[in-house]
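Lab meeting tomorrow. Look over both lines:
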Amino acid sequence: MEDREKESPLAEVDAEGSEGEDVESGPGSVGGPGETDDAAKLKEQLAYLAAEFENFRKRVAREREAQAAFGNERLLLAVLPFLDNLERAMGQATASSEALLSGVRMTYDQFLSELRKFGLEQLPACGGTFDPSRHEAIASVPATGIPGGTILAEARKGYLLHGRLLRPAQVTVAAGPPEDGDGDAPAGSVL
């Protein structure tokens, strides 16, 4: 690749087959009888720059293709140890259920720890206050002695990616005290 970049851009464009294009490659091929040496040099520089730009454009296209094909390589390398652990766990058919559960918990914690390295964070929910920008309420239930809007249970965890919401948490929320007005959903209803 480095050798290729050291090559003349004009030679690279020719080698990659730009059919139909007639890139002039030297002062002998440019310039009529009335042109000065400066004009011929400018034409040569222009041809050189055009070829260099074309090579740059092709190199960027190749890099984009490679990035699309191998962009997840680091993430997949981080995930592979968990597949190994799961395969080992499946191979322990005679293990007790407690040992199996302990292995699954260890794998879960390890997996979460690796995902944190990629910017993934779990959203804390239970016991907190409902925030519609981070939580999705799936039910509202009456709860005595608990302020309305408090999250009672979490059906599905929510996640942030580098501080931005990736997926909202699905939660059950404590219903506030009944209001005198009409049109409110009754406490305990599914939203």
